[in-house]
Every structure is written in structure tokens, then in C-alpha cells.
Amino acid sequence: MRVPFAHVDVENRVLSDRLTQRFRTVLDSGFFINGPEAARFERRFAALHQTRHAVAVNSGTDALRLALRALGVPRGSTGITVANTFVASVGAMISEGVRPLLVDVGDDENMDPDRLRAAFTPDTGVVIAVHLRGWPARADLIRDLCAERGIPLVEDCAQAVGATLAGRPVGTFGAVGCFSLHPLKNLGACGDAGLIVTDDDALAEQLRLLRNHGLADRDTVVQWGENSRLDDMQAALLDVKLDHLPEWTRRRVDLAERYRKGLAGLPLVLPPLDDDRTHVYHRFSIRTPHREELRAHLAAAGVETAVHYPVPIHRQPAAAGGGLAVAHGGLPVTERQSTEILSLPLHPAVTEEQLDHVVDHVDAFFRTRSPQHTL
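^ thats the sequence. predicted structure below, dont judge the formating
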């Protein structure tokens, strides 16, 4: 049995009639940039996150970059984040002249607040906390640490749309929350797309200027900006998909629970859970020191897997030339986890039969290991 890791084509095929209808509506309207579809999607996304504003941009990376610029993070200052995430979290800092300082993560794979506390210096200009794989970081604790020092917190919510901490949506603890709507995300466009949420009226206005060349109107440039607008076509398609996000999230949670039951008792570290945080399972990632053997075993059984992310950012070739630093004490947890993490197929199109096939072959792998392999 083949079990694909991702299945974006199924999602779009199921919604084909509605997507095609909205596509034609945009074509007929003649509004393709900064039009009514983008404004409608912004309003609905803001309501979902209980914020006053959602500012649509052309990617999650630009959401981070423009957030740093709008917040006035000084060039040459230090920005604290983690190394076990997608490169955009660090790349956005570097592109805005902010020097990344990488701190270690906890067992839940998110930023360790204690490591953050020890990493602040007089040069710290911003903290970017990543909600990795759909699991909220302790943004409440991180927010308080930042507030004590007058440092803005940016939440990288690229993988966590719909996740909550203490009943509150991620993206609402810091000054801004930045989202990616890349096609492989839980809410995915048919191309690149991003959003920034905030309750700060002045900050939202600044972001709208920055995404649109700094134009106050068609003929008046009040500051230098960029072209980072979300196309109305993408906004319309995302608006259709937003209606289905709750059911897709429930499906992901149900499948994750099936994985948990099927994999219980095996020598694996499963995704974290607690009563205070909701996991939306952008990824269902397990950890085992026998990752490569298990991955090969599953591939032979037709199961596609992925590793997110095998090479931490401070070990990337681009980092060899300098420009970023590692906090005192190094990143031992990050580095160990990077050798153990394996993402199993989990998306709304996975069937129970396919998921059980994955579980059966993970179980078979460990049942055939010698005792020293299962420790």
C-alpha cells in the first residue's frame, strides 16, 4: 500500500467547483491586487484569531521581514530565535540587518524560556518564537520575559494556524503573529501567501504601507516600501478553504489520536500534549535514534516520510561565513533531536486504512529489533 506524505491535489480536487467559481468571480471583477477578496479574507482571518487586524502579504517570509521593519528593530541589533526551524525565521532577520542569536529548545522542540532568559543582552532587539509543527511554544512565558526588558516579541506561526495556548490563538501573545499559507500548510494557498495579525492600529497601518511601496495613495509615497501584496486570486481561494479549516483540523487531531493509540508502548517519543495547549498537527513527528533504519523500513512498505529539519540552521553552509551566533552552552538538545525526528504522513486525505498500515509497519520494525535497538 502506498501512503503519500502530502496530498494537496486531493484537497483542491474536492473543492474544485467552489474554487473554480471564485476564480471566475475574480476574473470577472477585474480586481486582482488590493481588491475586495483580499480585504474580505483579512477580515475573516482577523476574526478567527480574535485580533483587530490581519495584513495579507505575499509570503510567510515577507510577513516576518516586514514585521521586523514595522517594529523598528534596529539594524545591527541581535534577534533571538531557534535553529530547528525553517530557514525563513533566521533569514528574515539577516535580510533586515538583525544578527541572529540561536538558543536551545526544550523537549517539546520549541524555544526553552530558561535558555531565552539567559541569552538576553543589551543588544537584543527582538525575539522570534516559533510554534513548531503546530504545537504552541510557551508564548505566555516568552512574552513576559520580553516585556520585562521592553523587547518586542514576534510569533512565527507559519505551522500553527488555529493552535491555541490557554484558550488563546497563537499569534496574539506578541506584538505581531506571522503566518505562512504556503500550499503545504494546514491552510494552504495555490502558491505563496502570508499574513500578519496584530491589535496595534498604528503597527497595522505601517505594515500596510510597507507591503505596498509605501503608498498612501496612488500618487503619494510617504516612505520606502516593497511590493508584497497578496493577490486577490489567492485570497479568494484561501477564503474558500478557510470554511473547511475547522473540519480539517478536527480530522488531523482524530488521525493523530489514532497514531497515539497505535504507537503507544513503542520506544518512540511522540508529539507533546498538555491540557493548556491545542496541537493542530501540521506535522506528526516522532523521535527515535533509529530514524534512518525506520525510514528505510517504511519506504519499503510504500510509506513516504520526511525529516523536518535534518540540518539545524547553525550547521547550514550559509552559516559558515558568520553572521549568526549560538547562545552560551550551545544547542545540544536541538542537535540531538535533529538526528531523531521523523515526520509520518498526516493530512486530511489520509485514510484510516493507510494510517493503520503505517502503524503496523512501525510496530513491525520495533518487534524485529534486538533488545539493544529498542532502548
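The two ends are 29 Å apart (CA to CA).
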